[in-house]
Amino acid sequence: MFYVYVLRSLKNNKRYIGLTNSLPKERLKQHNYGSNSWSKGNRPFELIYSEECNDKEFALKREKFLKTGTGRRVLDRLLNNGGCSSIG
């Protein structure tokens, strides 16, 4: 199982879009611990969106799409309208 997830920085409201094969809440803990230099400078985070994917290639494509301008607009609509999201 793979997960595409979106974190929001509580420090500066920036979003982070990532992919993991662990549960998004576990990945959130790693980011809040400061697992990389970007995370260290922008923490703490909250998990605001996640999608479960059975196929790694699909998950990679979905992550890449959500990082595009169109993907960010789709994500904004999902988050603002309640959409079909799996939060937490």
Regarding quaternary structure, how should these chains be classified? single chain
Gap between N and C termini: 16 Å
User: Ranges with pLDDT <50 over ≥5 residues?
Assistant: none
Number of domains: 1
Description:
The protein has 88 residues and is an alpha+beta fold. The chain has a single domain (2-81), classed as 3-Layer(aba) Sandwich (GIY-YIG endonuclease), CATH 3.40.1440.10. Helix content is 45%, strand content 26%. It has helices at residues 24-33, 37-42, 56-66, 69-81, and strands at 2-9, 15-20, 45-53. A hairpin with a 5-residue loop joins strand 1 and strand 2 (15-20). The two termini are 16 Å apart.
Note the main attributes of this structure.
88 residues; alpha+beta; GIY-YIG endonuclease; 3-stranded antiparallel beta sheet; 4 helices; 45% helix; 26% strand; globular
In short:
With 88 residues, the protein is of the alpha+beta class.
List the helices and strands and how they pair.
Blueprint: E1 2-9, E2 15-20, H1 24-33, H2 37-42, E3 45-53, H3 56-66, H4 69-81
Antiparallel strand pairs: 1-2, 1-3
